[in-house]
Structure formats: C-alpha cells, structure tokens
UniProtKB/TrEMBL annotation:
Family assignment from sequence similarity: Belongs to the 'phage' integrase family.
CDD domains hit by this protein: INT_P4_C
Lineage, highest ranks first: Bacteria, Pseudomonadati, Pseudomonadota, Alphaproteobacteria, Hyphomicrobiales
Alphabetized PROSITE patterns for the sequence: TYR_RECOMBINASE
Pfam families: Arm-DNA-bind_3, Phage_int_M, Phage_integrase
Protein name according to UniProt: Tyrosine-type recombinase/integrase
Species the sequence originates in: Rhizobium puerariae
C-alpha cells in the first residue's frame, strides 16, 4: 500500500480539491469545512468507487480502517459496493421492520378476508397511513408516542380510517409477539389514550324513506345495465358487490345463490346465501340477460363487472343524498313497520342474529317465509301500494315453522 499522505490537520484545513491518502483512499473536499471520503478499488479489472461517509461523521482514522476492510473484500474477488448493500439488507431483515411484519400478518389473515383481501380494505389503512412513516421502524421500537404522532393528523379528520388503522396495527403487533419478537402489546391502547376522544358520530349511509322508493324505482327505466342493477339491488336487499358480481349461473329458477365470498362477513363460513326472487325481480333478470357478457348478469360495455362508483354516480348526478347501500335501510324499515318478525327481517338482509348454539339447531334458511315478505316488498316497489293481505306468516306460524326446522 502506498504511504499515507494525509493528516487530521490536512483534512480540516485543506481547501476544495481531491487529496489521496494512498491505497485508493481519497479525500474529496467541496469546501474548507465540507467533504467526504471515497475508496477506489479494482474488482476483476473493473474500477469501483465507494463512498465512505462525510468528514463530519467519519474521521481520518476511521476512514482508513473502513478502507482496509473493503480492500480486503475486493482482494477476495467480491464487489465491496454490492457486499455492503447485501449486509445492509441482512441487517434490515434482522431488525424485523414493521412493514415486513405487517405484510406477514396480512398474508396470515387474507384467507379469511373477502376476495383474499385483494380489494385492500384490510391492508389499506396500514399501507396508506401507518407504513409510510413507520414501515422502516423495527417493531421492537414501536411505542405509543410514535403511533400517536403518526395517526394524530387523521385521528379526528378521518376518524373512521384512523380507528381502522390503529386496530390493524394492534393485530400486527400481536402477530409480531407470536413470532417471538419483543414488542409492546399495549402500545396501541396507550396511543389511543394519548390521542383522546375522536369526537365523531357514526354517520349512517343516507337512504330514501321507503315510501319514496317506488317513484325512484319507476325512474330507472332506460334498460341500461346500471338501471337494471340498481333495480335488482332494491328488490333483493343485497349489498353492491353481490349485485355487481352476480353471474347467470348463480340463478336457478326463482332463487339466487350468492357465494359466501361475496357476502360481507361470510368468508370461510359453511353455506352460501339464498335469495328468493320475486316475479318483478325475474323480469329484471330476463331484461338484463339480453345484454349480459362473460357470464356476468350486469356487465359494463367492455364486458367487465360494474364498479361500485357506477351505481353511486347515478344518484349523485340526480343530486340525491341517498346512496345504493341505503336501500337496505329502506327495506328494513318497511319490514319493521309492516310487522315482519325481527329475526326474519335480519335474515332477509343476511344479518346474523343467532349465537353459535342456536345456529347449530336452526338448519333452515326459512326461504319460503322470506319469499312472502320479499314478494310484498316487490309489489310495493312497483305499484306504490302495499297489499296488507300478502301471504306472509304470522308470528305464531313463524314459531311453528322454526320448531319444524329443528
């Protein structure tokens, strides 16, 4: 190695320029008080230039030690630049960064999420509001202060999103603990205490009063896939996804069978959800079949499923506050006011009202009972009049039918 030429005084006082210390170590001064270290080595006949840090952070002695280390790597035939990057990656893996643990936690849970979590609703709050700030932080270093500072900007402005983000983060921390990492399982709860009350009220999705539904239904008369899909949504009481993704092979006679993975909260459960189809609903289906594509009952001009926004925009363009999902509320209030038993009303909307033990004995989905109420709803929606003598069961008949189902 060439004789060392620099001294600590030279490093401090030399003006801007390039100064060699021997053995490929160079001092690059950009000004009297600023500069950096650079190592030049040959690897398999190819020159490589490697930064060793600023003179403000790395002394001459430290630079010489570092240069000697990386020259030894080059003598072994390895590229010191690539080797340093590999070591950095290994070190990051050993730190168990939050972004890596979060991804692993999501992979462990996604089989239980609708559509395997591809829509991003579970991972989205983390990806958008937590990981950009804390993703590169080791999980062992995550505390309530970091969480508080990360979520404070949205804690009240986007209360619902912030609440989901901190709930998902708590799940990730539990996952890290299960992996054997040293984490504070109370960090999220402590952060919530520091953030305080959100001061928001849950906002229900706007809906039309049930008495106004017939007039709106009648206005959906252009025969387009969008109009027909909203009609179908109103008549069946389904959420948007089962309607937009309904397929021709989901329909058999006067029954629609919705696969469990299209039903909110049904992923991984044993049974699909059967929907009785009224005469009006069957007419909507027949009209939709004439323009169905790729097996989809309601398809866009490109043959794809309609988007959720497509349905919402129709109501927005009409300057309505109500949204498609709100028709489930319209139907539920109608059923309640017309005397539909609570359990049947909830079953029509695919809400779970039974505990595990009760559900194990209730082995019927009461399709025929639900059909009577859905027929009554369809007659009201299409005529604006309610047939009070509709063939729907009384509470006594309901009890008898439930007993027979056990």
């Amino acid at each position: 190695m060439a004789r060392e030429k620099l001294s600590a005084v030279h490093v401090r006082q030399s003006p801007a320029g390039k100064y060699g210390d021997g053995g490929g170590l160079w001092l690059l001064k950009s000004g009297k008080d600023t500069g950096s270290w650079m190592l030049r080595v040959a690897v398999h006949g190819r020159l490589r230039h490697m930064g060793l840090g600023s003179i403000a952070d790395v002394s001459l002695a430290e630079a010489r030690v570092s240069a000697a280390k990386w020259r030894a790597v080059a003598r072994d035939g390895r590229d010191p630049v690539q080797e340093r990057e590999r070591q950095r990656r290994d070190a990051a893996r050993n730190l168990h960064l939050l972004e890596d643990v979060a991804r692993d936690a999501f992979e462990a849970r996604k089989a239980g999420l609708r559509g395997d979590g591809k829509a991003g609703r579970w991972y989205g709050p983390l990806e958008n509001h937590v990981l950009p700030k804390l993703g590169k932080t080791p999980v062992a270093d995550i505390d309530q202060i970091l969480i508080r500072d990360t979520l404070r900007p949205i804690w009240k402005a986007k209360a619902s999103t912030a609440e989901k983000a901190i709930q998902r983060l708590a799940i990730v921390m539990k996952h890290a603990a299960a992996l054997g990492y040293a984490v504070d399982l109370q960090a999220c709860a402590k952060a919530q205490a520091l953030l305080g009350a959100q001061g928001h009220e849950v906002q229900n999705i706007p809906s039309l009063p049930w008495a106004e539904v017939p007039a709106f239904y009648a206005s959906l008369n252009d025969g387009s896939a969008t109009h027909l899909a909203i009609r179908f949504l109103i008549l069946t009481g389904l959420r948007s996804a089962p309607v937009r993704l309904a397929r021709l092979d989901h329909i058999e006679g006067d029954v629609l069978t919705v696969p469990a993975d299209l039903m909110k909260g049904q992923k991984g459960k044993a049974s699909d959800f059967r929907v009785p189809l009224s005469a009006e609903t069957l007419e909507v289906i027949e009209e939709a079949k004439r323009q169905s594509r790729n097996g989809l009952l309601f398809a866009s001009p490109r043959g794809l499923a309609l988007s959720d926004m497509t349905l919402s925009r129709l109501m927005q363009r009409r300057e309505m506050e109500a949204r498609p999902h709100g028709f489930r509320s319209s139907l539920r209030v109608f059923l309640a006011e017309k005397g539909c038993p609570r359990d049947i009303g909830e079953m029509i909307l695919a809400h779970s009202v039974m505990g595990k033990v009760e559900a194990s004995y209730m082995r019927s989905d009461l399709l025929d009972i639900r059909r009577g109420w859905m027929d009554r709803w369809a007659r009201f929606v299409t005529t604006g009049k309610d047939d009070a003598q509709a063939d729907v069961p009384t509470t006594g008949q309901l009890i008898q039918m439930q007993a027979g189902a056990r």
